[in-house]
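Quick note —
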Amino acid sequence: MIQMIYEKLPHITLPKIGLGTARLGGRIIPNRRRDPEYLSAIRSALELGYTHIDTAELYALGHSEELIGRAIREAHVAREKIMLTTKAWLVHLGYKSLLAAAENSLRRLAMEYIDLYLIHIPNPFIPLEESFRALNELVRRGRVRNVGVSNFGLGLLKRAQALSEGTLVTNQIPYSLGEQSYVRNGVIDYCREHGIVVTAYTPLNHGRTRINSTMRSISRAHDATPSQIALAWLISQPRVIAIPMSFDPNHQKENLEAAQIKLSTAEIEALDHAEF
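Predicted structure written out below.
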């Protein structure tokens, strides 16, 4: 099993590399014909040593959650060994709706608690105070252990932090060598300064990041793929974790092994300043 490194907070420990599942179960509509393939993908990830799995009620209208819960049960993995993140969609951010959404996610997962529950995307028509009243209540009930947000800009992130009765664990955002809008808008610096973990989704930028001479040179030096170097660059940063998505066991293994790549300060600086 591949040795993992972690981002440690007072109340939660997050693996630097987790598994994204945005297309598990189908795109928006569930594709149950491919369930054997989807279940196999989760099983291979668990066998390789993934312990953080990220999902959402939006993914295949909850079928992703059903598949993840089933795969964990069938693999006989102890619940406490898995760090599970799921997310509430923007139409369910009212107080009663959010309480119900969490219970529905738990039912689909067939679990007693969610390790990390996020607002998937802000809804300007529902007061954030109402959403956090529900999130705080879910924590008090023990149905949710930690809370966070996703796709929050700086102003909303500060409000969310103030409204959360406990630690706001993460802001899940698109972040990669080729996507750095949240660097430019100040969110990532703010997260780092205030102990909020950045969870980088699409950390390989859907494979669109240009492989330039800098990337090729560093990849050769570490006998690694460009994708592994891109992930190693992300997780070399304090308070940053990544959740690449792959259903291919070989790619899952490659992604997990990126945690073992130690980039030098010069290599990190070269990637920081290269154009992708």
